[in-house]
Design goal:
2 copies of one chain form a homodimer. By secondary structure, chain A is of the alpha+beta class. Chain A contains 6 helices and 3 strands. Chain A is elongated, with a radius of gyration of 15 Å. The first copy, chain A, binds a DNA duplex through helix 4, helix 5 and strand 3.
Chain lengths: 102, 102
Amino acid sequence: MPSDLHGLADIDRLIHEPARLALAAILSVVESADFLYLQRETGLTKGNLSSHLAKLEEAGYIAIEKTYRGRVPLTLVRLTDAGTAAYRTYRARFKKFLEKTG
Amino acid sequence: MPSDLHGLADIDRLIHEPARLALAAILSVVESADFLYLQRETGLTKGNLSSHLAKLEEAGYIAIEKTYRGRVPLTLVRLTDAGTAAYRTYRARFKKFLEKTG
DNA sequence: CAAACTAGTTAGTTATACAAACCATAAAGG
DNA sequence: CCTTTATGGTTTGTATAACTAACTAGTTTG
């Protein structure tokens, strides 16, 4: 394999996807967020948000806690350590790409 | 629609895709490049490269000129003005995102 | 003249994002 | 009450996307 253009090739696709990148950006600053808050912030449909969260959870990037607010179900999401690390790495890599190709 | 998280939502997907982002980065600095050069730089398979180029051409981001080197066919690729503009916009937007969420 | 290389395209598979429809419960209105 | 409306999601289906493998076509080399 060639130079792979400044590590662009092994960018984390899971985070690269704009919807998930937005989610990571939000979760990186809030400790934890509920489903509807995330939906409003990202503008995603419920289904879409649900599937993105499932992917992030599968990757171990987020932890999903299903609880109740009163008797109304409530889904709380937070970034795991792995998720935080992945997000940081992604940002660093991309920043480097932008600089190197500036 | 909500805040859309610093314009991340309307990022140019055509350029956002890492393979095409790499292509744009290369083409933004070389005036013109041939197929095999691009293949080696990006590490893409021929088929994959071909389809990415087709998409970029369809969008008017690149111009493809099919010519000959001696009697061997040669495909030359260069960024159009629209492509250059789109690449620049993409970079600016992403940079902004990185800064704002820094 | 056969093998192997150059330069690509086409065809087919797999994965992805996305929206629409659905399900379940709870509160509110008549 | 019991129907509507809202909350909080999941499941399902579909169109697009990326990617690989196989094929085409001509060319050089042994």
